[in-house]
């Protein structure tokens, strides 16, 4: 019981490959469903809410309340049909994001990252991809944004174990996008003034397809 829990934490929630990166591509459907079914979907906080525009607090307590938060995040992500969700997107000041995201080869990745830090890439790995990007907190808006097509993140899993996550293509974009959220940045903050204005116009002209928290 208690000893078993300790052994499990030491081993980590997900297996790792020969280079120490989590293997987040196995059992994705079952793991996502298990989290989601324990959670309660919450409305999404949108651009303009102060919680989205400041760095979140580090996660230090990985107890029952935090586990419920992660479950709620998976449920909220599923309702909004997103591929990644940061805690502040449901109004919680905590440095954690969840993801259920395919890469460019269609391989599904599912996991949890707490206290993430992006690894600085050497020049030979900084190939930029300028695909469209969107955000659940800027509903219905999209804009092209150049980001590296490979990303590595270090942090902790939902039990506090140290982890490394890496991804390519669309999944690399997701890792960068969600880490940005937890440091107070939305993707539109990386756009030119004209592009940001256009994204906010798109948002204003369309109705979100999921529940959102209106800004006062």
UniProtKB/TrEMBL annotation:
Q: Binding residues for Fe cation, per the UniProt record?
A: 135, 177, 181
Q: Which GO terms describe its biological process?
A: translation
The free-text note explaining how the cofactor binds reads: Binds 1 Fe(2+) ion.
Q: Identify the keywords attached in UniProt to this record, alphabetized.
A: Hydrolase, Iron, Metal-binding, Protein biosynthesis
Task: Extract the Pfam families matched here.
Answer: Pep_deformylase
According to its UniProt record, which residues of this chain constitute the active site?
178
Substrates-to-products reaction catalysed: N-terminal N-formyl-L-methionyl-[peptide] + H2O = N-terminal L-methionyl-[peptide] + formate
The protein's matches in Gene3D superfamilies, at most eight in alphabetical order, are given as: Peptide deformylase
What SUPFAM superfamilies does UniProt report for this protein, alphabetically?
Peptide deformylase (SSF56420)
Q: What does this protein do?
A: Removes the formyl group from the N-terminal Met of newly synthesized proteins. Requires at least a dipeptide for an efficient rate of reaction. N-terminal L-methionine is a prerequisite for activity but the enzyme has broad specificity at other positions.
- In Swiss-Prot or TrEMBL terms, this protein is called Peptide deformylase
Q: Which organism is it from?
A: Streptomyces cahuitamycinicus
